[in-house]
Amino acid sequence: MEFDKIDRELLKLLQEDCKLTNKQLSLKLNLSVTAVYERIKKLEKNEVIEKYVALVNKEKINKSFVAFCHIKLTQHSHDFVVDFEKNVTTLKEVVACFHVSGDYDYLLKVVVADMAEFREFIVNKLTSIHHIGSTHSMFVINEVKHTTAVNI
Fold first, then answer.
1. Structural domains counted in the chain
2. Angle in degrees, CA 52, 63, 61, rounded to 5
3. What confidence tens digit (pLDDT) does each residue in 96-108 have?
């Protein structure tokens, strides 16, 4: 899909604050409310905009311990990959899972309350998934940059 300057600005504004009304967006973009509405609908229809979400402050809900886990499977067969991916998506502590290249097969982002909850997650949940050969975990000391916005 081709994006013009207005589409790019509209997406930028929505990524900054998706609760802006069409009226507010129309004033910022110098368009009619109808034109803004139609552009948004087109972006949604073409699945450029997948969904709208609320970003929750992890500290306010006592989930400020963030870890990244590298996972290496015992084999790279289709069945092992499909089984791992199916099982890892059921773990509520895992907020992101990436199939990656390099020494490990997957990178997980895990969000929990503290080290004790992370240990519980590793021992009782992650290791119950079959075909995991090894894991390597790293813990976030300080979040320097975090954004959900994609530069368009």
1. 2
2. 70
3. 999 999 999 999 9
Q: Where is 27: in which H helix or E strand?
A: helix 22-29
Enter the pTM of the model: 0.89
Query: Does 121 lie in the same domain as 81?
Result: yes
In a domain, 127, yes or no: yes
What stretches of 30-130 show up as alpha helix (H) in DSSP? 33-45, 78-88, 115-124
CATH number for the domain harbouring residue 121: 3.30.70.920
Residue 72 DSSP SS3: strand
Predicted confidence at residue 86, as pLDDT, reads: 97
- Alpha-carbon distance of 103 to 101, in angstroms, equals 7
